[in-house]
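Action item from last meeting closed. Structure (496 res):
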């Protein structure tokens, strides 16, 4: 089995964790040249949902359907970054940022997901990249952050393996037209999340709830990851291609052999399912029993298609999971399918891995409901470093949701001290991982702006900049001002 057990290492259990004293922020230093950044995603910030030839995305369709998003919210306007990007880049520059991770809207480039590119869409991202470079900021582009052209969903969506070829064509268009400006690319954002939540659970678009569709969708994405890598390398000699995976450090509920083995399976399914295929051309040992190749739609030669030499590995960190074996607890859900864990609920046992995972509440909870556990980023970074021979790592997202707003008695400032504490403690742990040998070159806080938070609409605020959605006024929060000091000094021991 994978992970610590396979390497002869030992991960702490939830009931008997490794001692985790608060890391001393005063000794937390980052190396010269470390890249401090902020992140956003196209549908969450751009708006302009039907301007300049952009086609409909699955999130446009989903958000326009009653009952799908809290408050009836949509991303039709969001933060209007499509029109206000220069203002946002000025904020990035004022905060001493050196990297901006954004995503491109596929239907803005190919309105129906195939065919000739929309020149106005390409022009927009060309101007965005040029403005970033003029500000001394590295453009870091994610090709797909969940907004699939609706026309491709109408052809079957990600379970249709033809999408791997369509995605490679899209990737090649971007590298050919923008590759002289953008050199750092990640094909997908959190592929496990959009394939499982969209096709396996159905709480995200397109709203399907079929385990078979999830397995097919995930396999298509693994093929698309490999095909896109090769297409981009062919179109741009200076392209570097990595990843932006969602990961959560996982700990066994008890010290039992069963729970430790279950934790390995959880890690294989939720953390490295799309990384193992790229690095080794094989699926990790996530399943109990044989890998369900037939259910995936696996064909001869797919292993070679999936395998590509990623230039770096990127992943997100938000919170942790506690995992137990569920081989004796599986039950059929009300809809006749076996319950599957989602990111939003404790969920039932997962039938493929026979695990049950939940988010503990030993640490404080954010307003968004996630446990704050700074030690998790150290454990996760060190685990990936050991398992994949100390690759170059970029933290592609990390952040916390708090609802602090401008406060008149503080001169209009946004005194979000809890967010400052979150980043101070987490970054101290990340600095410790670097000191212990991890090759981490960048950290991207989520997010530059408060924005549309998917099915939660505008009920959560993750930004280091407050956005008043009534007039699009931006106010940098105290956490943003603090983060600017970190970026300027490579240290986290600053007063709030």
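Sequence:
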């Amino acid at each position: 089995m994978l992970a610590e057990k396979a390497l002869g290492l030992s991960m702490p259990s939830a009931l008997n964790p490794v001692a985790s004293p608060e890391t001393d922020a005063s000794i937390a230093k980052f190396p010269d040249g470390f890249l401090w950044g902020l992140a956003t995603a196209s549908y969450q910030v751009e708006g302009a949902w039907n301007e300049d030839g952009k086609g409909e995305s699955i999130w446009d369709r989903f958000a326009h359907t009653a009952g799908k998003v809290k408050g009836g919210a949509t991303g039709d306007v969001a933060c209007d970054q499509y029109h206000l990007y220069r203002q946002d880049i000025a904020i990035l520059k004022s905060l001493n940022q050196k990297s901006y991770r954004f995503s491109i809207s596929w239907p803005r480039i190919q309105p129906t997901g195939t065919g000739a590119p929309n020149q106005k869409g390409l022009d927009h991202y060309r101007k965005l990249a040029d403005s970033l470079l003029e500000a001394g900021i590295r453009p870091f582009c994610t090709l797909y952050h969940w907004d699939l052209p609706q026309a491709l969903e109408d052809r079957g969506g990600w379970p249709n393996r033809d999408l791997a070829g369509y995605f490679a064509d899209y990737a090649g268009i971007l590298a050919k037209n923008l590759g002289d400006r953008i050199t750092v690319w990640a094909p997908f954002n959190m592929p496990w999340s959009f394939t499982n939540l969209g096709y396996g659970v159905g709480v995200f678009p397109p709203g399907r709830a079929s385990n078979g569709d999830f397995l097919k969708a995930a396999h298509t994405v693994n093929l698309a990851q490999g095909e896109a890598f090769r297409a981009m390398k062919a179109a741009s000699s200076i392209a570097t291609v990595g990843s932006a995976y969602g990961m959560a450090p996982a700990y066994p509920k008890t010290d039992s052999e069963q729970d430790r083995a279950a934790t390995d399976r959880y890690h294989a399914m939720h953390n490295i399912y799309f990384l193992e295929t790229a690095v080794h051309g094989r699926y990790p040992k996530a399943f109990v029993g044989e890998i369900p190749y037939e259910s995936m739609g696996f064909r001869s030669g797919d292993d070679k298609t999936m395998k590509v030499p990623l230039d770096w590995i990127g992943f997100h960190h938000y919170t942790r999971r506690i995992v137990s074996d569920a081989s004796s607890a599986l039950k059929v859900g009300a809809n006749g399918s076996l319950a599957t864990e989602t990111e939003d609920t404790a969920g039932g046992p997962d039938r493929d891995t026979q695990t049950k995972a939940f988010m503990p509440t030993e640490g404080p909870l954010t307003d968004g409901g996630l446990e704050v556990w700074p030690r998790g980023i150290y454990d996760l970074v060190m685990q990936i470093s050991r398992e994949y021979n100390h690759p170059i790592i970029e933290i592609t997202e990390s952040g916390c949701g708090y609802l602090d707003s401008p406060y008149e008695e503080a001169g209009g400032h946004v005194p979000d001290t809890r967010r400052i504490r979150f980043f101070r403690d987490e970054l101290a742990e990340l600095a410790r991982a670097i000191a212990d040998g991890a090759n981490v070159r960048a950290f991207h806080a989520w997010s530059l702006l408060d924005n549309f938070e998917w099915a939660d609409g505008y009920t959560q605020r993750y930004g280091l900049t407050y956005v008043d959605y009534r007039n699009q006024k931006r106010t940098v929060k105290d956490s943003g001002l603090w983060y600017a000091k970190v970026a300027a000094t490579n240290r986290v021991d600053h007063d709030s």
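Note appended to the action item: The chain has a mean pLDDT of 92.
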